[in-house]
Amino acid sequence: MSLTTKIETPSVTYEQPIGLYIDGQWVKGKEGKTFETINPTNEKPIVAVHEAGPDDVDIAVSAARKALNGVWADTLPSARGRMLTKLADLFDEHIDTLAAIESLDNGKALSMAKADVAASSACLRYYGGWADKIHGKVIDTDPETLNYTRHEPIGVCGQIIPWNFPLAMWSWKIGPALATGNTVVLKTAEQTPLSGLYAATLCEKAGIPAGVVNILSGFGKTAGAAIASHMDVDKVAFTGSTAVGRTILQAAAKSNLKKVTLELGGKSPNIVFNDANIEDAISWVNFGIFFNHGQCCCAGSRIYVQEGIYDEFIEKFKARTAKNVVGDPFAKDTFQGPQVSQLQYDRIMAYIKAGKDAGAKVETGGERHGDKGYFIQPTIFSGVSDDMKIMQEEIFGPVCSISKFKTEDEAIKAGNETTYGLAAAVHTTDLNTAIRVSNKLKAGTVWVNNYNLISYQVPFGGFKESGIGRELGKYALANYTQVKSVRMRLGSALFG
Ligand code: ADP
Looking at domain 4-264+462-483, which CATH architecture does it have? Predict the structure, then answer.
């Protein structure tokens, strides 16, 4: 099997790398295994890619260690920055191909995939700008001592990413890690390996030295677990489910106590007050849950509507949702494509059944869309009580639950009644309500009169069981640096 293959998508034909990218080389896995990635639109295999096992993780970690202590340590911060900026430019130049790969492999609409690529390049460019602005402090203690801090790279970073935003997650991880002088072994999700491999070819073109970025395709229980428990990986950054996040933390604890950052699940409340601009609120609520087919960790899946507008809200929300075009990701007007896999499709349909069985009312949807591909109708449940499974658990699909509230306190209490704390939103025209409620919601991000607005400049991450640490913005730099205090004695010996 050669290590690239030609792939035709409805929008572009391109050369897809299928090997593992280790130490600047394209190689097969040591165990000689491959696995197929499936097109969720037609359920057919796209291509088989080489699979990394624990031995390949070892080789990639050694390459990353060698680069960390060698070529990367000798690279000026400003040069690191220029490479990241160049990589961002290459993302922009290759936007049509990168977006087509995402639509093919993940099923997201091409227009949304292009927005993902643009957001990814913006993120890489932003961290390119930070590379030569990483510095510590001078701390005065007494005239006889010079104290300063250095923000040094943590070292070899293992990065494990999910399938819902393959390129965006790739950039959120690689941008800050490289800006601060670390090297990386990144494992893509087994459902969507293709765009990460293509992006590796752009790392080569950007002049990033061999071994600094290593990209592996493989499964969580083998390659992912090997990264999390590796004795020579200094840090692991993970985005994915809360259940796997726990195993990553355990693996770090049982191995070398590597630093851990986690961006995990959510069950985010979206609260709409009587005085909200109802048309705008519905537009954001619709985007909050149905964007990316509900496959967002921050999806606004619990919708609390104040009693004065509850009936009107439901009717208008249903009418708005009916306008979401579900279908072929490559079709011009598509908003919602298929779910990523059979497994996700089955999980979501099981939740829909649980909602129906528990007596929640299906306002719209609740069934498969079409007869092939993993398509699910946008689904709205009303009359959902807090103890129902569909109100408690992360569904990760185009399914939301609406509930009625009377008072502000009741909305805040219900909004916080979850083990998660990734995001929340409040819709109101009263500034005081907006500020009071935002302050009381226990979530890493609170959107006021919008939803899902994410910027590379603004930190993102979870309270409670939604994660540890923050990605994006200046805050992410702290996750990729460790502080060294240097204390220089200028005067005479202290004692005698
Ligand atoms: P999902 O259930 O949405 O697929 P996961 O949390 O299972 O989300 O997967 C997110 C990422 O974590 C993927 O790259 C996957 O391969 C990886 N992963 C899954 N299980 C493990 C594990 N035990 N150790 C390390 N990584 C894992």
Answer: 3-Layer(aba) Sandwich (3.40)
